[in-house]
Amino acid sequence: MRKKILLQTPTGMHDILPEEQKYYQKIFDVVSEIAKFYHFQRIETPILERTDLFLRSIGLATDIVQKEMFSLKTKGGDSLTLRPEGTAPIARAFIQHGMQNLPQPLKLWYFGPFFRSEHPQAGRYRQFWQFGFEVLGAKSPVIDAQIVQIFFNIFQELKLKNIIVKVNSIGDKACRPYYKKLLSSYLKYRIDELCEDCRRRLKENPLRVLDCKEEKCQRVTYNAPQMIDHLCEECRAHFKEFLEYLEELGLPYQLDTRLVRGLDYYTKTVFEFFEESEKGKEIGALAGGGRYDDLIKILGKQDVPGVGGAGGIERIVSLIKEKAIKWPKEKKVEIFLAQLGNLAKRKSLVLIENFRKEGIPVFESLDRDSLKAQLRLADKLGVRYTLILGQKEVLEGTILLRDMISGKQEVIKLDKVLPEIKKRLKKS
Ligand code: HAM
Q1: Hey, which of 130, 271, 317 would you mutate to test ligand 1's pocket, going by the most ligand atoms within 8 Å of its Cβ?
Q2: Which of 109, 286, 393, 411 is 20 to 30 A from 118, alpha carbon to alpha carbon?
Q3: pTM higher than 0.70
Q4: Strands annotated E in 246-323
Q5: Which one of 128, 286, 307 would you pick to mutate in the ligand 1 pocket, going by the greatest count of ligand atoms within 8 A of its CB?
């Protein structure tokens, strides 16, 4: 029994096996290309941060802080936490490296693993990958809209269809406290109808009651006062302008007055992306984000607005698999280099490097000695040509070229092999 457990990944964590790498690589390629187009610079922060960073930014009353952080004590007695998200670490890096002195707005992106000790279920892992975009030092809603556009572009490039974005505004410190009071007094009258979690939330963070998935809580909040009816003038104008930009871009958005997000650092705009199939509904949001104008101030002293979002890579991969989406094939490997004898192995090592420099992919099996086994492998891999290099060929400065379709074999000069292969690959 112990051995069985020893040989399993920890609960909620998973290997990304070789056959799955193509999905992660494709998402990385699409995200990095789009980041380049919009002039985002890559940043990567440590996997561990001081626990306090997350307590102060994500908020003490959130599920992440109360239930989901993997924390550890160092030998020196510091408390560190495996990062549950990327925005707080980036805000920390911004302050630590004095990035407010760089030309603003500063646009940053990242791609890496994150950790939340959640109850494992569809689309919910304890180690999962995210890509994210953050813009620091810009307060116009046009940037909020551009972030939303960037996520749409990524989903489109990945050939995911029926994507919608749900949007809302959760106000700021000028208008949210009043709304919270209003909501609390509405909910207090109906406290008996709420689930246990929401009774706790009502005291600590009543906004979270709005996005409870329990049906009985949703019944209660159906007629609850809505934040957008109580926004201050500035937040109202910001939200209106944001929606106008989404209209201008022709992006399919839905106003969702229950959308409040699970992290406390947001102000004004919040959004989440969904795919509208059954599978999409089952796995939940593909990406989420919003504006966090007070975050840098909470952590440091500067008044630097921010807005951004992050996408959940496992969820996106599971949709791509479900929809059996195929991308154009990568450059096929058409050449197999077989070798026989030590001298040929040495020459082959060099030849492989020459192929690489010319950008021609080549299979080999340098650790195999049997020519028969190598030819069998070449056949299995379905290459167009196999090059065969033996002791005799090396001494004569030649190499055998075998056409795998016709089975014909010919001798060519070793120093002409690259141009010859290039010519043939161009023809076929
Ligand atoms: P979040 O909504 O907590 O936001 O996470 C972003 C995305 O990560 C989610 O929409 C989901 O796709 C994925 N995700 C979250 N938790 C899990 C999990 N346990 N398993 C699998 N996927 C998961 C943030 O993390 C913010 N930092 C986003 C942001 C950036 N806001 C402003 N800038």
Answers
A1: 130
A2: 109
A3: yes
A4: 253-255, 267-275, 287-291, 306-312
A5: 128
